[in-house]
Amino acid sequence: MMLTRLQFVDLCILCGCDYTKNIGNIGPTKAYQLIQKYGSIERVLKKIELDNENPNKKRKYEVPDFFPYE
After folding, report:
1. pLDDT value at position 33?
2. Closest by alpha carbon to 38, among 54, 24, 49?
3. CA proximity to 13, closest of 51, 49, 32
4. Residue 63 lies in a domain
5. Residue 25: which region, alpha, beta or left (left: phi > 0; alpha: psi -120 to 50)?
6. pLDDT in tens, 28-50
7. Which pLDDT belongs to residue 20?
8. Residue 59 within any structural domain of the chain
9. CB 64 within 8 A of CB 20
10. Domain of 9?
11. CATH value at residue 18
12. Total tally of structural domains belonging to the chain
């Protein structure tokens, strides 16, 4: 799947950059898969947030408290 320019930027942010901390357990391959599936970093973070709120699910990804992805 080809990524748009904005999706590529979102992918780079999910992989970690100079401006944000990494999200635990997300590397380049997983970041690419998540952008392919959800289309944007906002949707990926919303999905992670919903999964982390569910007490029946194990926390797979840890988003830093301060994650300025905009």
Report:
1. 96
2. 49
3. 32
4. no
5. left
6. 999 999 999 999 999 999 998 88
7. 80
8. no
9. yes
10. 5-53
11. 1.10.150.20
12. 1
